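wait is this the right file?? whatever heres the structure
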């Protein structure tokens, strides 16, 4: 009987594969690699039988059931080979049960495929043949690719020298199978050309297996599955399974859709790909997948080496002294997949009193408040040193009473964790994190990780504050050096006046000399006054007294009446008094109003408002001027010697903030470039009567 050309080529192709695997099986005997790690002899023998049966099936066009069983057996043996290698290597690190989840999935797939083959032998159907001939081989190909990827990704540089050819060969086998059978799932038939070439492809990959056999014979490999590898493997496997299911559904739509089948299939497959891309780029999906894998694959939830490297990198990246607070918040939030965070730090106030103020936030602008250093909540954090879960605290009323939670924190539904920051065993501040995208609650591992990270973040913030204080001190030192030059100029003026006085005895009767002398004295006095005004930033020293804010504002408005743009004053509540040095407070408020006038064109508006909120005086200075950039407000506005004005020294805004905080108040600013600026000053009121 004459054989057709295709059958003859197929028989030759699979015959070459059978010969290659037979040689590999014979040469593999006695070279099983490290103790406890299965060798290539068994899977090579199984592949020899598989290739021989397919070669005979191509010649006789019969024994379809035997070919299907050979296909199943060959896949199971290779999966078993990779699985046993992983199990043996993981057992060396006493963490073999971390692969139990994957093992159960592979075992279930093997049992289901074997059961389907048995049923097909008794009750053959077209649907069952489709699963046996396309779906199950594609699933085994995906499982094989995942195992090969795990095998290679976590090998060290020395180990990869011994396994790279093995992984390349098996990866090539499973990738070719996946291509062949995924196409069969879509078209409901196996490509004849691909099926014929499959035997020759396997034969070409056998030399790579033999090279790996030689290299692994005396190599003791140690394999560790990392969190990142498990995440990528699971994502790859899930994506592969999803695509296969969508391909099967697309084929069904094409089959059942009639003349619209092809169009409906195209639209469906595009939508399925779009859904997959949305899932891949979703932060919530990635976070939940990472947590799920940590629960099922690993004894510990975190890969501490990678987490610590990432945390340290986020703290130290970027320019020095730039967005230090923001980077610290993002590094803390990243550990638990929190989308928002806010930072409070302890800052000195007037009279040796300190308070905890919010100094930075990341996507958490709605949470704001201030606590005095003697408040019960900071004292509780410092004494207990706990990471507080606000949900658990709300469920324990006795803990709420003991901790003295501030109302603005308890009423924020978005808040989740409060993490104290300690520097030399003293509470330097605390961080509030928003609800996590993946973590359902707190446990000992999250608690320990956040406490340790908080220690490092506190040290980093303390270093940044010390560097900032040193910078300010150096700037003031430069200012003092500049003052020395001013004193030198004054000395020159004194010498000039002394010379003038010495010549007065000779020329005092001359009208020209008298006019020249008066002009010189007038010029010198004006120059000295200007220099002294620059140096004498401090008013005449005086004790604090009770001052009326309404009278202070009227005095400031009167001093600005000479300008073409006259600010408008609105006092909504009278009789508000504070404890302050009158002259210094006048200068601070006058500076805010002066800046608003200078930043606003004469056609614009400047308004000053004073009202009351409980025991606080609220003073706002608003203009419709040029405004400021957010980066300038955050990084430069309240720093000394930084100004947007060409002739400004940058001292005024710094003095305003320092003195307002010295009065236990606060100052905030909001601005939009081209739309104006709003300064809000909060000062504590007193009930003492005016003297």
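ok assuming it is, sequence goes like this
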């Amino acid at each position: 009987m004459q054989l057709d050309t295709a059958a003859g080529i197929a028989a030759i192709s699979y015959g070459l594969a059978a010969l290659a695997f037979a040689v590999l099986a014979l040469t593999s005997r006695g070279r099983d690699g490290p103790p406890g790690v299965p060798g290539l002899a068994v899977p090579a023998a199984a592949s020899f039988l598989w290739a021989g049966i397919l070669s005979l099936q191509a010649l006789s066009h019969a024994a379809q059931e035997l070919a299907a069983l050979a296909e199943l057996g060959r896949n199971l043996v290779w999966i078993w080979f990779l699985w046993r290698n992983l199990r043996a290597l993981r057992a060396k690190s006493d963490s073999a049960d971390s692969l139990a989840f994957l093992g159960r999935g592979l075992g279930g797939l093997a049992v289901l495929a074997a059961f389907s083959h048995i049923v097909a032998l008794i009750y053959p159907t077209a649907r069952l043949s489709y699963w046996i001939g396309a779906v199950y081989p594609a699933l085994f190909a995906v499982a094989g690719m995942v195992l090969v990827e795990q095998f290679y990704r976590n090998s060290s540089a020395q180990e990869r020298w011994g396994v790279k050819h093995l992984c390349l060969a098996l990866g090539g086998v499973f990738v070719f199978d996946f291509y062949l059978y995924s196409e069969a799932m879509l078209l409901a038939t196996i490509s004849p050309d691909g099926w014929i070439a499959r035997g020759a492809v396997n034969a070409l990959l056998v030399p790579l297996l033999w090279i790996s056999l030689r290299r692994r014979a005396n190599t003791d490999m140690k394999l560790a599955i990392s969190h990142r590898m498990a995440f990528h493997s699971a994502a790859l496997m899930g994506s592969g399974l999803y695509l296969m299911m969508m391909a099967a559904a697309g084929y069904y739509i094409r089959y059942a859709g009639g003349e619209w089948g092809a169009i409906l299939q195209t639209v469906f497959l595009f939508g399925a790909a779009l859904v997959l891309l949305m899932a891949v780029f979703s932060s919530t999906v990635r976070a939940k997948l990472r947590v799920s894998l940590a629960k099922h694959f690993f004894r510990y939830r975190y890969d501490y080496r990678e987490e610590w490297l990432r945390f340290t990198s986020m703290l130290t990246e970027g320019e020095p002294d730039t967005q230090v607070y923001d980077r610290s918040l993002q590094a803390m939030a990243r550990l638990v997949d929190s989308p928002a965070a806010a930072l409070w730090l302890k800052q000195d106030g007037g009279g040796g009193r300190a308070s905890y103020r919010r100094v930075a936030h990341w996507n958490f602008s709605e949470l704001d408040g201030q606590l005095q250093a003697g408040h019960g909540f900071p004292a509780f954090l410092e004494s207990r040193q706990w990471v507080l879960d606000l949900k658990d605290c709300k469920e324990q009323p006795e803990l709420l009473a003991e901790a003295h939670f501030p109302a603005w924190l308890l009423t924020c539904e978005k808040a989740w964790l409060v993490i104290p920051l300690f520097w030399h065993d003293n509470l330097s501040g605390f961080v509030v994190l928003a609800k996590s995208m993946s973590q359902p609650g707190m446990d000992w591992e999250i608690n320990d990780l956040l406490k340790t990270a908080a220690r490092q973040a506190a040290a980093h913030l303390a270093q940044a504050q010390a560097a900032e204080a040193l910078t300010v001190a150096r700037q003031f030192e430069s200012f003092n050096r500049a003052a020395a030059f001013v004193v030198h100029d004054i000395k020159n003026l004194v010498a000039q006046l002394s010379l003038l006085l010495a010549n007065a005895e000779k020329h005092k009767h001359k009208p020209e000399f008298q006019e020249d002398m008066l002009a010189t004295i007038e010029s010198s006095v004006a120059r000295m006054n200007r220099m002294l005004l620059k140096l004498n930033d401090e008013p005449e020293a005086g004790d604090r007294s009770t001052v009326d804010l309404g009278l202070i504002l009227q005095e400031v408005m009167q001093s600005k009446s000479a300008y073409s743009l006259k600010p408008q004053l609105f006092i909504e509540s009278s009789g508000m008094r504070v404890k302050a040095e009158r002259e210094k407070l006048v200068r601070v408020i006058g500076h805010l109003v002066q800046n608003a006038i200078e930043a606003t064109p004469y056609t614009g508006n400047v308004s000053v408002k004073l009202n009351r909120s409980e025991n606080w005086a609220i003073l706002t200075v608003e203009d419709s001027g040029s405004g400021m950039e957010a980066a300038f407000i955050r990084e430069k506005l309240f720093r000394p010697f930084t100004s947007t004005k060409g002739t400004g020294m940058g001292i005024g805004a710094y003095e305003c903030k320092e003195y307002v905080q010295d009065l236990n108040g606060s100052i905030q600013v909001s601005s939009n470039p081209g739309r104006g600026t709003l300064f809000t000053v909060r000062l504590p009121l007193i009930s003492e009567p005016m003297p």
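The chain has five domains: 5-225, 227-299, 316-467, 471-535, 545-684. so i think its the right one actually
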